Amino acid sequence: MAKTIAIIGGGNLGKSIADGLLSNDFEASKLTITRNRIDFLNAYKDQGVAVTKNNKEAVINSDIIIIAVKPYKIEAVLEEISDEITTDKILVSVVSDFTIEQISNCLSVQPSIVRAMPNTAASVNASMTCMASKNASQSDMEEVTSIFNALGETILIDEQLMDAATVLGACGIAYVLRFIRAMIQGGIEIGFDAKTANKIATQTVKGASELLLKGGNHPEAEIDKVTTPKGCTITGLNEMEHNGFSSALIKGIKTSLDKIS
Where does it primarily localize (predicted)? Predict the structure, then answer.
């Protein structure tokens, strides 16, 4: 990762990417972050990161440009920087619901274009990033993959699934956090103080994920290990299912996709 990187849009996701890069020893002097309110980026400036309001300047000085603005802003931003984009640069969009073809149509020249969808866990190097490209070379994809591998795990998908990846991987952070919050509330109701309930719930969720990631089993196989006949686990699971737990989650995921599509 010796190339210079510009993150256009220092909002929550842009800052999460920057945090992940910096915590993985990416050289601060090779990173630029833009935002209209640059006072919100003072912590990065103090670390040696270049911060600016000037998107064009950031693009000129960078090899890889990561567009991390709100979806309604991307066309205007691409038109603003179009003259500064050259064919030797790599353009990475982490903006949802805006295709590679749409990006290409906003530019006067055609660089390598990659769509990537990380999540805010990039800030702690635990993101799941889905990536797609139609015209990037193998070496360019290796460059982009190296960036997002520094932020967690990566996977290549068909661009047609990028909206679905946004829902499952990026929106999914919120779904899981809401589940953890409910676990904490339940823990408080059965006697724990909030801090202790938080610790138990978050470590339990981490442990459940590690069982699947390292063991490679289906979730039901791991569930079977902790359910006994007439036991408290199966009783609780059945009560959740009777109240629509799985159905509500599936419907929520599908509704989010309907909204973004």
Answer: cytoplasm
- State which amino acid sits at residue 137: S
Q: N- to C-terminal Cα distance for the chain?
A: 34
pLDDT in tens, the chain (261 residues): 469 999 999 999 999 999 999 999 999 999 999 999 999 999 999 999 999 999 999 999 999 999 999 999 999 999 999 999 999 999 999 999 999 999 999 999 999 999 999 999 999 999 999 999 988 999 999 999 999 999 999 999 999 999 999 999 999 999 999 999 999 999 999 999 999 999 999 999 999 999 999 999 999 999 999 999 999 999 999 999 999 999 999 999 999 999 987
Q: What's the one-letter identity of residue 245?
A: F
Cα 19–20–23 angle (5° rounding)?
80
Cα–Cα distance measured from residue 164 to residue 52, given in angstroms and rounded to the nearest whole number? 33
Q: Where are the beta strands (DSSP E) in 11-109?
A: 31-34, 50-52, 64-67, 90-93
Residue-range domains of the chain with CATH: 5-157 (3.40.50.720), 166-260 (1.10.3730.10)
Nearest to 15 by CA among 122, 169, 154: 122
DSSP 85: -
Would the pTM of this model clear 0.85, i.e. be above it?
yes
